[in-house]
Amino acid sequence: MTTDWNPLLRHEFEQPYWKSLQSFVALERQHHSVYPPQADVFAALHRTSHAETKVVVLGQDPYHGPGQAHGLCFSVQRGVRPPPSLVNIFKELHSDLDVPVPHHGDLSAWARRGVLLLNTTLTVRAGVAGSHQGKGWETFTDQVIRAVNDKPFVVFVLWGAHARRKKDLIDVTRHAVIEAPHPSPLSAHQGFFGSRPFSRINAALGDAGLPHVEWSLD
User: Fold this and answer.
1) Sign of the alpha-carbon torsion through 26, 122, 99, 211
2) Percent of the chain whose predicted confidence (pLDDT) is above 90
3) Per-residue pLDDT tens for 86-100?
4) For residues 48 and 218, what is the distance between their CA atoms, to the nearest angstrom?
5) Torsion-angle region of residue 37: left (phi > 0), alpha (psi -120 to 50) or beta?
6) Do residues 123 and 36 lie in contact, with contact meaning Cβ atoms separated by under 8 Å?
7) Which of 40, 61, 96, 106 is catalytic?
8) Which of 77, 78, 185, 207 would give a disulfide with 104, using CB separation of 3.0 to 4.6 Å?
């Protein structure tokens, strides 16, 4: 890891859990397809530096379908059909800010604009949701969240019960926290739609004297 995250996280690479985690993932790759590709596992940290992070969106697992996951939560590469949760995110973005629904599902532009798109588990076996949970990734990504929490002000976006459990790692007296049900079709109609997260993020950034995020992807 050659970004400014390195000095903040490199002590994790010396911990016993890290060696066990990497051995597990390597063995999984020997016997199964694992997503995302090895080169994209830490894409969220490579695309968004610690210094530039002003918004954090927390996901859970990478997508477990072929060609979908590329290291940014909720994002898929161009040419890959956006999954249902991402479709609902785009619907809410259009409803909230009248931003046109993009013709692709690649959120890399958001990452370049200071939005850390972090899954709490960074790998998954093909076709098996949750298969790499509880192996050590959460210990690592909790440290990422703590490192962001050390910044003066960040907007944390917690969609769904899993992400909301990470609220305990956040100093809510300094940071803005935006919570809503998950954008999955199973829960989007229970309060995600109409929650206006994108305008709320920009309002919180403006109140803190920080530039708004440009949410357009096309």
Assistant:
1) negative
2) 98
3) 999 999 999 999 999
4) 20
5) beta
6) yes
7) 61
8) 78
Take residue 209 and report the two structure tokens written for it.
């004297």
DSSP labels, 10-49: GGGGGSHHHHHHHHHHHHHHHHS-EES-GGGTTHHHHHS-
Separation between Cα atoms, residue 114 and residue 136, nearest integer Å: 26
Which amino acid, 87? V
- What is the pLDDT of the chain when averaged over all its residues? 97
Tokens of 13: 């690479």
Binned at pLDDT 50, 70 and 90, residue 218 comes out as confident
User: What's the CA gap between 31 and 154, in Å, rounded?
Assistant: 40
Task: Say if residues 48 and 117 touch (Cβ distance below 8 Å).
Answer: yes
In the prediction, which pLDDT does 20 show?
A: 98
**Residue the block writes with tokens 């790759």:** 29
The pLDDT value given to residue 1:
61
